[in-house]
Amino acid sequence: MKRAMGLALGLGLASVAPAGAEQAGFLPYTNPGVIAEGQVIYEENCAACHGAQLEGEPNWRERDAEGYLPAPPHDPSGHTWHHPDAQLFMITKFGTEAMVGNGYQSRMGAYEDVLSDEEIVKVLAFIKSTWPDQIVEMHNERNAASN
């Protein structure tokens, strides 16, 4: 994951990362301006599947009739916070199928031609900013462990 973190920061994400972010990851989740911009981008590009309140689709843990998993929540009830910043960035940019591999199928496509790297970081920062302190702390620990 160090390589992915380096790749992400090498893509220009350092410009939106908070000071001292190395241990906590690179999402500027405490920056009010970034959070506000990320919320707008989320509403325009993500809420249709992941929910206006980050609640995800119903029965998101159960495959549908076509074999796909519904969009998971990004609130604390989901598993977004289980993944370090770099992995969340890569999933969003390149799509779940590309990141999981082994023939995994997902409706979560790549956003590399839709959102800039900076916009992806802002969306992820917005999402993280909504989590309770305990979840943020656990997520920061995952980021530190992935370095």
Provide tags for this entry.
globular, Cytochrome Bc1 Complex, Chain D, domain 2, 8 helices, 50% helix, mainly alpha, 147 residues
In words, what does this structure look like?
This protein has 147 residues and is an all-alpha fold. The protein has a single domain, classed as Cytochrome c-like domain (Cytochrome Bc1 Complex, Chain D, domain 2, Orthogonal Bundle). Helix content is 50%, strand content 0%. It is built from 8 helices and no strands. Helix 1 packs across helix 5 and helix 5 (85-94) packs across helix 7 (117-129). The relative contact order is 0.22. The model is unreliable at 1-12 and 17-23 (pLDDT under 50).
Which helices and strands, and how do they pair?
Layout: H1 2-10, H2 21-24, H3 32-45, H4 47-50, H5 85-94, H6 96-100, H7 117-129, H8 133-146
CATH superfamily: Cytochrome c-like domain
Largest sheet: none
The number of E-state strands comes to 0
How many helical stretches?
A: 8
Portion of residues in beta strands equals: under 5%
- CA-based gyration radius: 14 Å
Give the N-to-C terminal Cα separation. Answer: 7 Å
* CATH uppermost class: Mainly Alpha
The CATH architecture can be given as Orthogonal Bundle
Q: In one word, what is the shape?
A: globular
**Structural class given helices, strands, pairing?**
mainly alpha
The quaternary state of the protein chains shown equals single chain
Order of helices and strands: HHHHHHHH
